Amino acid sequence: MFSLTDAAKLNTDALLLIFRNRFNLYGLKAIDIQAVCPVSEIIFVPQAPPFIVGAVTYRGLFFTVVDFDALILDRTASVRSENKVVLLASESAKLAIRVEDIVSLTAIEEQGHRVSSQGGGKLSQFVSSALEWKSQMVPILDTDRLINHTLETFYRFIPGAREVR
Question: pTM for this one?
Fold first, then answer.
């Protein structure tokens, strides 16, 4: 398991975790990440939206697992045993994203990456910016937007879920 707790000595504002799903690269700010774990036992969540893989627990905390590709492409979620989950946390909730491969943990400032705005398609509602990394544009996901969208969609699918929270 990869944990960012050892990276506390580093400026996590300047670190970006780059991951791959299918043929696409995405970035997450390291400061929003609690841990990266292998896919273990996923708990089935009845009546969940199609992009929800299920849920996992980590150190006694409950994380809803989202298949990001299923979310932006309107497909049904899927997971394989070789996948990993990136555990995200905000003040309001916790969420995990299924990823196929961790590509890099990159110090943005030190690598001289150019940050620019990103737009277009369903993906754009979850992107805060994009950066050029090794000649590829990598959308940087906005953790708060992703968590809020997932919660609101979850509440629409499962009546009464808001009260349980």
Answer: 0.77
